Amino acid sequence: MPNSISILVVDDHPLFRQGVVHALQSEPGLRVVAETDSGEEALELARTLMPQVMLLDISMSGWDGITTAEKVSTACPATAIVMLTMSDDKDKLLAAFKAGARAYVLKGVAAQELARVVRAAAAGEVYVSQSLAGEMLVSLTHGKAPDPLQELTPREREILALIGNGYTNRAIGEKIFLSEQTIKHYVTNILQKLQVRSRVEAALLATRHALA
What pLDDT is attached to residue 93? Predict the structure, then answer.
């Protein structure tokens, strides 16, 4: 099938891997071009075959899935990596996406759903198993950092607003009757409290929070 999506399956559990291969081959428009139990071999196969999608387990001997994803995403950026794993660890999920994965699916997913995820990944979409996505949203909501502007003193907020309006340190000092050196000291404290690296980032933050 000339328009079928080419897939490489990587998992070190033979029975599971064969089941995935069989399930995907039964779906219209999908074609498994190779399978392997090794991350190292997966990289070589990806370079040779250039599959559109790679299904990849996280827990493997040798290179694990995160390492393999990093190397494949660097060598073959056109290959969409779908992590297919038993791990519902949120840290591993985040590490997988940082490594270049485009989807994160828990094993036990129905064959038709897996096929849908493969098609979505091949089309450039991002996917996370619904249960994990819900947990991530809850943890991000509950763990949301407080407004960094709350850490600023009234004087620091005043200076930040002037930074947001494009004032230089000298101009700020003249406006609020402080020395340029004192303003520099304030600006250093403001950048540290806001955890930003430059006046430009601070100015953007001031604009976003309607200070400027």
Answer: 87
CB 187 within 8 A of CB 136: no
- Determine the straight-line distance between the first and last CA of the chain, rounded to whole angstroms: 58
Residue 42 corresponds to which tokens in the numbers above? 């997966």
- Locate the domains of the chain by residue range: 5-142, 148-208
Pull the structure tokens for residue 204.
Answer: 């953007």
Q: Looking at the predicted structure, is the pLDDT value of residue 179 above 60?
A: yes
What's this model's pTM, rounded to 2 decimal places?
0.63
Residue 88 phi, psi (nearest 5): -105, 25
Q: How far apart are CA 57 and CA 9, in angstroms?
A: 9
Q: Which two tokens stand for residue 199?
A: 């006046």
What is the CATH T-level fold of the domain 148-208, as seen in this structure?
Answer: Arc Repressor Mutant, subunit A (1.10.10)
CATH 3.20.20.140 fits 5-142, yes or no: no
What average pLDDT does range 174-201 have in this prediction? 91
Instruction: Report the distance separating Cα 27 and Cα 119, nearest Å.
Output: 11
